[in-house]
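Box 3.1 A note on notation
Throughout this textbook, protein chains are presented in two layers. The first layer is the amino acid sequence; the second is a token string describing backbone geometry. Keep the layers aligned when reading.
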Amino acid sequence: MIGKLGEVVIDCHDPMQLAEFWQHVLGGYVVRQSHEWVALEPPTGLTIGFQLVPEAKVAKNRVHLDVDVADLEDAVASALPWGAQRVGEVVYDELGGFQVMLDPEGNEFCFIHGPTAITA
């Protein structure tokens, strides 16, 4: 083993705004570490860092976050007022369902519901 995963970092133009969006999705608390770096400490799980970068997002993410939810439509409806966007329709397969979303800066993520997703 070389090391352990410390946190996931998302490049963005407004670290505080994006951290606050994700706080509404995941809970936890936001920690401003500098103008260029903000962290979200969710109640459980991995820290998410938001790093200021000058360039805009121009392609599909190579890595994205999957957020387990009890109900896909409720999750979508709760995220839209905070700046999320729905991409396409819910996809169902043998593992359950998922809805591709965009955060306020256009980063893809998925709400997922299935055998391994949380229950209300």
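The CA atoms of residues 102 and 108 lie 5 Å apart. Helices lie at 15-26, 72-79.
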